[in-house]
Amino acid sequence: MTDMSTGPAILVEGLTKSFGDVHALRGIDLSVPRGTVLGVLGPNGAGKTTAVRILTTLLQPDGGRALVEGRDVVRDAAAVRRSIGLSGQSAAIQEELTGRENLELIGRLYHLSWPQARSRAAELLDQFELTDAADRAAKTYSGGMQRRLDLAASLVGRPQVLFLDEPTTGLDPRARLGMWDIIRSLVADGTTLLLTTQYLDEADELADEIVVIDHGQVIAAGTSEDLKGRVGGDVLEFTVPDRARIADAVSAIAKIGEGEAHVDEETGVISIGVGGRGSEALIEVVRALDGAGVAIQGLSLRRPSLDDVFLALTGHAAEEEEQPAKGRRGRRRSAKKDTAGATS
Amino acid sequence: MTAITVPAVQPPVGDPNLFTRARWAVSDTLTITRRNLLVWVRVPAYIMFTVIQPVMFVLLFRYVFGGAIPVKGTTYVNFLMPGIIGQSAAFATFGTAIALAQELKKGVIDRLKSMPMARSAVLAGRLVADTGRMFITILILVGVGYAVGFRFQNGFGLAVAMVVLATIFGLAICCIAAFTGLAIGDEESVQAFGLIWLFPLTFVSSAFVPISTMPGWLQAFAKNQPVTIVIDTMRSMALGGPIATNLWLSVAWLGGIFIVFVPLAIRAYKRAA
């Protein structure tokens, strides 16, 4: 073990993979230091899952190489499997069995003895707050509980490197926050984590480093702050509860911002890029709106979100390739065209 | 680039020795078998398929169609039981294909493949559990057969041989089903496809009616297909009559199915995405 303490936990160089004419990965490089979290961010179809499947030995790459804990995922796949855990996009659990049975089963398949498998299962059920539901069939669990059980299953073998493929996709906001807490606690234990997500705020929340993937290529990498720096400047945001006054508000603040204000007609949220003169602009906006007699709520100055970053990097919003009618992330529908304009 | 390549590839950790791996293969297979049987016991619908449906078939054919089907030299219920046991063994494999397709879709197989367990165990455990399940169905059918007038005519030894042959036959069909389940990977399609090949194969055979009652063109197929050959062998074992030729043909057919479909199923498992 000691000889592996140097070098990154995950190293990927020039990884390519095609399915027929579809180039899922067009040469990806990644390096994840031990004990850190890499957020792989990108829309559906960007190649995130393909990369995870190659790193977890489920799929053979066409070109390039990938090492996990210094072991080649193709040539030394068996050793890689001993050091990883995987939790995929759907809950890969046996719904007819209880939560406890699911975890004991996985423990047995990791070649733990029965007593070991039992105590490991009990430990994880406790850690993931599933003890009360432990002896109920998993199909009676809520979506959030099922995902927690799935994540617990991926930890039975105490992996050094954990792969989470869109761990909160399909969860309601509360379950999502619960999942974030759990993921943070794993990281605190020193596990190296590679996390894919379509949610920009999720990468922002959990990842030390972020790579943005689009069409099978890394289009940007760095910390959340680095990426936000690329957008440049702060964003001022407020809500106009009376929709009829939105136009008045926009014209009142027109001269203050850099570029045009962006209006979300649905929610009445107006946002505007204000460059480096944040607090100054804040006062001006208050005066201007007061002068125009427009009542507002929740005026705030914020650093640009990764939403803004994605738009600035790719020219399209992160959710653009999302299949419609899933309705699960209505809250970030708005493509903030104005902030992209402000950066150019 | 060169700077990154410095962390050298670790030398492969040799796999555990052969003995350990063999032990794991067995214990992993048993774990998966246990899981599959637990699932089976928990779902009333599965019990219905393995127990009630075959019994219903016996009663339908015995009392509804039976009166209209003349057979030579024995009663219809004696003729029917070996046929219906063979047919039920074949139909039991629907469960194999559907279960594997579901596991594939839900990502269960992905998870298992990413773990350091024996890779053969998922398929082996599935076949062991499903064969066990099928064996129970066969025993229940023999019991129900006895209740409605069926009697083995040829001694205990050959009766046991018939049950064994039926089980091996079911296992062979199980391998085909495992391949279709993994290759198609979608529950509904697997089910539809199963109907397309299993229904003609079991019904256009000697399972329920004497082949001589079928039109000539159909007889050519019915006489020479494996289900007929296996069921005729089982029938001779249960009721008497020449066994040798059909037994060798059965062994050849079943052997052929194993030789073709076991590697196909393994390949489909490895490739399953």
Outline:
The complex is a heterodimer of chains A (344) and B (273). Chain A is of the alpha/beta class and 344 residues long.
Description of the structure:
- The complex is a heterodimer of chains A (344) and B (273).
- Chain A contains 12 helices and 14 strands.
- Mean pLDDT of chain A is 83; it is low at 320-344.
- Chain A folds into 2 domains: 2-222, Rossmann fold, CATH 3.40.50.300; 230-343, YebC, transcriptional regulation domain (Alpha-Beta Plaits, 2-Layer Sandwich).
- Helix content of chain A is 36%, strand content 24%.
- Chain A has a 6-stranded mixed sheet, sandwiched between helices. Chain A has a 4-stranded antiparallel sheet with strand order 2-1-4-5, covered by helices on one side.
- Chain A has 344 residues and is an alpha/beta fold.
- Chain B is built from 11 helices and no strands.
- Chain B has 273 residues and is an all-alpha fold.
- Chain B has one domain (20-271).
- In chain B, helix 4 runs antiparallel to helix 6 (121-147) and helix 7 (156-184) runs antiparallel to helix 8.
- Chain B has helices at residues 18-42, 44-65, 76-91, 93-106, 108-113, 121-147, 156-184, 187-203, 216-224, 226-239, 244-271.
- The longest helix of chain B has 29 residues, at 156-184.
- The model of chain B is unreliable at 1-8 (pLDDT under 50).
- Chains A and B meet through strand 5, helix 2, strand 6 and helix 3 of A and helix 1 and helix 5 of B.
